[in-house]
Amino acid sequence: MIIAVDGPAAAGKGTLARRLAQHYRLAFLDTGALYRAAALHAIESGGDPAAPAVAEDAARRVGPGDLGNPRLREEGVAQAASVVSAIPQVRAALLRFQRDFAATPPGAVLDGRDIGTVVCPDADAKIYVTASLEARAARRFEELRRLGETVIYGRVLQDMKDRDARDSARRTAPLRPADDAIVLDTTELDAEAAFEAAVRAIEEKLAGKHHRSVR
Ligand code: DC
């Protein structure tokens, strides 16, 4: 079983995807961490993350050992991740890892931007998690503050806008809901309510699939 969870930054994808993985006893992959790891390798190499050759080389060096690095959560790394993720060679270099992960039994929940559209177009259920820009900026602001970073709300809002624009406007695998995705707006929902709404929608989707296949 594969569940794709896509959406913009700070919409609540990660929290939801982790809970769904636990609930359905599936593995979990935060695919944003792969792009963040590629960005961090590029930064640490001293090269320009926007240079395709630098970014591709960095992406090829990404492995499972990179995923727990606390530096991946830094805002500078997030911005650089958004830059490297627009480079087609970077996306190609990270595709195999994601597909192999999803194909490993018993299956997985993957969260990202293009899971339902590109990485796992045949996923059993696809959820597109979104929320208003202001709600997402407020959540990210709180998250960064808890991490002890000095943050200004206006700056977080602007960074969020910039990242949304880059992630949605890029030519390769832009951020968009798959045609068969369930759209879940979490602006007014807490994590618990979002989880319950997602499980209901997934159950309906799986039941519908079953009916179709036995008919
Ligand atoms: O979800 P995140 O904030 O950790 O993602 C960091 C960046 O990586 C994001 O700005 C866009 C990119 N990304 C992507 O292009 N495709 C994915 N499947 C996941 C993340």
Structural description of this entry:
The protein has one domain (2-197): P-loop containing nucleotide triphosphate hydrolases (Rossmann fold, 3-Layer(aba) Sandwich), CATH 3.40.50.300. 56% of the residues lie in helices and 11% in strands. The protein has helices at residues 13-23, 31-44, 52-60, 75-84, 88-103, 115-119, 133-146, 153-169, 191-214, and strands at residues 2-6, 27-30, 108-112, 125-130, 182-185. The protein has a 5-stranded parallel β-sheet with strand order 2-3-1-4-5, sandwiched between helices. The chain is globular. The mean pLDDT is 93. Bound molecules: 2'-deoxycytidine-5'-monophosphate. 2'-deoxycytidine-5'-monophosphate (DC) is lined by residues 9, 31-32, 35-36, 78, 81-82, 85, 112-114, 163, 167.
The gist of it:
The protein is an alpha/beta fold and 215 residues long. Helix content is 56%, strand content 11%. Helix 2 (31-44) crosses helix 4 and helix 3 (52-60) runs parallel beside helix 5 (88-103).
Average pLDDT metric: 93
DSSP, total strands: 5
Please state the CA-atom Rg, rounded to the nearest Å.
17 Å
The total number of structural domains is 1
Residue share in β-strands: 5-15%
What compounds sit in this structure? 2'-deoxycytidine-5'-monophosphate
Spatial order of strands in the largest sheet: 2-3-1-4-5
Q: Give the CATH class.
A: Alpha Beta
CA distance, first residue to last residue: 21 Å
H-E string: EHEHHHHEHEHHEH
Main β sheet profile: 5 strands, parallel
- The assigned structural class equals alpha/beta
